[in-house]
Write a sequence for this structure.
């Protein structure tokens, strides 16, 4: 029965995840090498071109990823479980609201979205009362607004509220 529960909890093997990540790194390294070759990755008369060193970093990244990919492809030992379903659930509890937060930034701006995000997490996962949620959810974005927009003069995405207030 313990094996049956363990089998139900399995999601993906560590080997499969290492193959996927190595393949993604190989793809990123290929893009890095291509783009740096395009801008110049050779040694010129006056020294290295702009893409010389980044191209080599991309090549090292590709070789390391290819070795990892090959080792996992040829491995004969059984692979362990990468993650259990309960752990995936915990990750998704943070990932999904974070993705929604990023999407909301386009419509409401960073500061209002941050207030909603903070309030949501404090209420949902933290189970805090509204008397504790409201001051934090308002104070943090206000402080960030003052710090970035007023003191550092770094404009961040703004929404309708900031536009209505003249920013």
């Amino acid at each position: 029965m313990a094996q049956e529960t363990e089998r139900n909890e399995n999601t993906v093997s560590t080997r499969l995840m290492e193959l996927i990540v190595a393949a993604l790194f190989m793809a990123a390294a290929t893009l890095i090498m291509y783009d740096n070759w395009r801008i110049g990755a050779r040694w010129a008369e006056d020294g290295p071109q702009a893409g010389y060193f980044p191209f080599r970093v991309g090549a090292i990244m590709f070789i390391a990823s290819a070795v990892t990919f090959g080792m996992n492809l040829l491995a004969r030992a059984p692979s362990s479980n990468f993650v259990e379903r309960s752990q995936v659930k915990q990750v998704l509890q943070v990932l999904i609201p974070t993705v929604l937060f990023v999407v909301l930034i386009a419509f409401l701006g960073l500061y209002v979205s941050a207030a909603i995000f903070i309030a949501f997490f404090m209420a949902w996962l933290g189970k805090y009362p509204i008397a504790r949620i409201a001051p934090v959810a308002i104070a943090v974005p206000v402080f960030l607004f003052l710090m970035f927009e007023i003191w550092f003069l770094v404009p961040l995405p703004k929404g309708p509220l900031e536009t209505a207030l003249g920013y």
Observations:
- Residues 10-83 form one domain.
- The chain has two domains: 10-83, 85-164.
- The longest helix spans residues 14-39.
- The first strand starts at residue 10 and ends at 13.
